[in-house]
Each structure stands twice: as C-alpha cells, then as structure tokens.
C-alpha cells in the first residue's frame, strides 16, 4: 500500500494535530500572555504572610536559604516558620539561634510521625496550625528565591482574587546531559500545569513554590484525603482545592520563581520522579485524560514513526513534512516559554531532549506499574 494512503500516515498526522492543538490553545498563548503587573506592597489587599519550610537533615541548605528569606522585601511583613522534621543534624540549634536575633523566625519541631501517615504532610500540618497569618507561602529547604521580591510577587496572585497561587520553580543550569533533561522535564511539566490553570483547568502545583490561604487549607480538610500517601502535598492538595471550588491563580514572572539544584545522578532523579508520578492515579479523570492525551500523542508519534520506517515504504517527503512541522512548532513553543520563564535551554538540544524525555516517561510509567512500593526519606 502506498504510504500516502497508509493508515500509519493518517495516525501520524493525527498525533501531530493533537500536539499542535495543545501548542496553539494552551502553551503558546500562555507563553505570549501580557506581562503581569508588578506587585504593589501598598495595595489594599496586601497582607502579612507566613513562609513555611519543612526540612529533614538539610542544615547546609537551610544555611543558604534562610538568610535569603530574611532579606525579602515585603512591606506588610512576614514570618518564617521552619518545621524541623525529625532531623538528626544541628538544624534545631541553628534555627534556635536565628530565633534569638530575628523575632519573625519561628521553629516547629517534629519528634515522631504517627504510624501510617506521610511524614512531610504531618509536619506541614503542624506548621500550618502555628502560622500567625491567613496567607501561607511554601518552599523547600533545597530551594532559594530567585529575587528579593519573591514574597511580594507570589502574594500578588491573591489579588486575582484567588485562594491558591501556583508558581514556577526552576533548576540551576549545570554541565551535562542529565541537567539539561531535568530542566527540560521541569519546563515541560510547568508548560502543562501553568497553562492549563491559566485556561481555567488547574490540576497541580509544586511545593517548591506554592501559596494558599489558611481558609483554603481548612476548606479542603488539609491533607486528610491523602495523608497516607507519601507524595501529593502539592498536586493532590490542588486537586482537592479545585474539587472544593477554590479559585486558582498563576504567578509565573521570573521575579516570582524559586531555584533549586537538580538531582546529581540518574538514580536520584529516577526515585524523585517515581514519587512524583505516583500521585497521578488520584487525579480527576478529566485531568488524567488531558495530560494523558498530550503525553500519549507524543509517544504514539514516535512509535508510529518507527512502525513506518520498519514495516512500510514511506513517502519521504510526507514523512519529512510531518516531522518538520511538529519539530519546528513544538521546539518554538519550548523556546518561547523558556524565554518567558527565563529558563532557556539550547535550541539545538530541544529535539533530542524531547525524544529522550518521552521514552524516559514511558519507562517510569512501566516501573510504577510493576513496582509500586515507594519509600520516604
């Protein structure tokens, strides 16, 4: 059968159309949206905020993070709550010393976690209960704010008005292919959850840069619905908040970002991604279909191409046109979003990273299906 009339060609074309729809409706419009206004600390809705950091044996990271938090410029004021989750290092002594000099630094110590509960969610719940202010802002111990205006930029999201604000957390550029792949995966994930939320279909956020109100936490009954699941203190919480009618805003300007160091080894990243993906089975059906359609169309595109090359006599012109259109538009989309988020990857690497990422994603999915046991640190 001539390739021009082959079902494989039409399947390949359908995959490209699905991907172009996502690029044209979600990703590119989000990347090209109007510039968000600068935060105004004197605005009537500006309020003090509680910044919460949960740490488990992360003293070196805290020595880097906490001074940067204390340098934040936010006129309404803020407190920093460090939740020491069963640390065996000198975290307690270090933070205790800070509390002597900075009255807005507070320490919450967790000696043990009740059996069967997620340690991080239990620790975060204790920290939230002690917070003085209605607005809560979260980051991780291994993150740093991108600017001294991180708090004010993230708080601006509540002016939407919203009860929950999604931010972006990038990884610092380092030499090597693994770092590029991790940053590409982070960009691609953000491209989905930020643009979907911008279109009114929020489904997740990242705990490295997330804000919500105490009223939102109470309305969703905290982490009660997934307190026994290791992961999900960010994405499953967003799922519950949306189910309870909480409004979600996006605050993705570079000044509102946090920055982390990427996993140094493939095995460390593999474990991290397994934990993150394990929460996906609890997403709403509509969200799973929306995400799965995009990921599935990309995987099917590559599998169909392989089938064409192995089992048919392709029309090289048609095949080249489909590949060219897809590659140019998607890589332009990735590059545009990278510029907007100030997290750019070398353009020449984007087609390679795209191939590797989607097959890595498939391997993760198979791994989770075959081996479901996860461990918490």
TrEMBL record:
- Which Gene Ontology molecular function entries are recorded, alphabetically? glycosyltransferase activity
List, alphabetically, the Pfam families matched: Glycos_transf_2
In terms of InterPro entries, this protein maps to: Glyco_trans_2-like (IPR001173), Nucleotide-diphossugar_trans (IPR029044)
What residue stretches are annotated with the Glycosyltransferase 2-like domain? 50-182
Name the domain of life this protein comes from: Bacteria
Where do the TM regions start and end? Answer: 291-311, 316-337, 349-370
Keywords (alphabetical) are: Glycosyltransferase, Membrane, Transferase, Transmembrane, Transmembrane helix
Give the record's family classification. Answer: Belongs to the glycosyltransferase 2 family.
Q: What is the protein's given name? A: Glycosyltransferase, catalytic subunit of cellulose synthase and poly-beta-1,6-N-acetylglucosamine synthase
What is the organism of origin for this protein? Hymenobacter daecheongensis DSM 21074
């Amino acid at each position: 059968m001539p390739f021009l009339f082959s079902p494989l060609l039409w399947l390949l074309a359908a995959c490209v159309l699905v991907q172009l729809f996502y690029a044209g409706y979600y990703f590119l419009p989000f990347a090209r949206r109007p510039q968000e206004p600068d935060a105004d600390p004197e605005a009537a809705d500006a309020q003090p905020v509680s910044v919460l950091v949960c740490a488990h044996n992360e003293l070196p990271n805290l020595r880097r993070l906490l001074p940067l938090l204390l340098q934040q410029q936010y006129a309404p004021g803020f407190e920093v709550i460090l939740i020491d989750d069963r640390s065996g290092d000198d975290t307690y002594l270090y933070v205790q010393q800070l509390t002597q000099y900075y009255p807005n630094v507070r320490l919450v110590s967790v000696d043990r976690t009740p059996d069967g509960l997620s340690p991080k969610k239990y620790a975060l719940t204790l920290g939230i209960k002690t917070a003085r202010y209605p607005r809560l802002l979260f980051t991780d111990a291994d993150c740093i704010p991108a600017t001294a205006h991180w708090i004010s930029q993230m708080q601006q999201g509540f002016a939407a008005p919203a009860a929950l604000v999604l931010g972006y957390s990038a990884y610092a550029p380092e030499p090597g292919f693994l770092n590029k792949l991790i940053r590409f995966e982070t960009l691609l994930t953000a491209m989905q959850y930020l643009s979907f939320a911008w279109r009114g279909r929020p489904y997740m956020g990242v705990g490295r840069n997330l804000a919500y109100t105490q009223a939102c936490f109470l309305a969703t009954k905290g982490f009660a619905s997934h307190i026994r699941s290791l992961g999900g203190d960010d994405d499953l919480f967003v799922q519950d908040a949306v189910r309870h009618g909480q409004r979600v805003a996006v605050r993705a300007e570079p000044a509102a970002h946090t920055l982390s160091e990427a996993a140094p080894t493939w095995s460390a990243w593999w474990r991290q991604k397994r934990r993150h993906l394990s929460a996906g089975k609890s997403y709403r059906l509509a969200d799973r279909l929306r995400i799965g359609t995009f990921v599935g169309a990309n995987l099917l595109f590559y599998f169909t191409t392989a089938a064409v090359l192995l089992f048919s006599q392709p029309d090289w012109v048609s095949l080249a046109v489909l590949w060219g259109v897809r590659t140019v538009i998607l890589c332009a989309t990735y590059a545009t979003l990278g510029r907007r988020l100030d997290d750019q990857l070398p353009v020449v690497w984007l087609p390679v990273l795209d191939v590797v990422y989607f097959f890595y994603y498939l391997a993760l999915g198979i791994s989770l299906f075959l081996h479901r046991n996860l461990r918490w640190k």
